[in-house]
Amino acid sequence: MTEPESTNTGNTNTGNSDTGSRDAGSTDAARFTRRVEDFRCAHCDRPVRGNGYTNHCPYCLHSKHVDINPGDRAANCGGLMAPVAAGIERDKYFVVQQCERCGHLRRNKTVAADDRAVILGYFGRPIPSRR
Ligand SMILES: [Zn+2]
Ligand SMILES: [Zn+2]
Fold first, then answer.
1. How large is the average pLDDT for residues 77-99?
2. How many whole angstroms from 130 Cα to the centroid of ligand 1?
3. Residue 95 to residue 88: CA distance in whole angstroms
4. Which whole number is the average pLDDT over 29-54?
5. Region 15-29: what's the mean pLDDT?
6. 10-14, 51-55, 67-71, 78-82 — most confident range
7. From the CA of 10, how far away is ligand 1's center (Å)?
8. How many domains does the chain have?
9. How far, in Å, from the CA of 64 to the mean position of ligand 2?
10. 33 Cβ partners below 8 Å, 6+ apart?
């Protein structure tokens, strides 16, 4: 009963190793990452469903100062962009937002999901000019 340990090479069951990986092909679908992101409004705390077209809250028209024009230095400001005025141009409503932290002004197009009554509430306010 003195067998050498080197004879213990029992790796002969390689033929059945793929029985448990039947659904390996379905993982390819999970690699498709959507850029649309849902977020919670920093002002009214309502959940906002991102649709890729808007980054502001449709209920109160606030947004975060993170997505701005290319080349703008305040890209990572993170302040709250609050609506300060609204208007209409070529039958499209727009909202002027101003960052409460750095004062950055932005004219924001509205989308169909935005609360029309809230937009109209900002009509007639003086539109601040960029300095
Ligand atoms: Zn909101
Ligand atoms: Zn800012």
1. 93
2. 24
3. 9
4. 74
5. 52
6. 78-82
7. 65
8. 1
9. 8
10. none
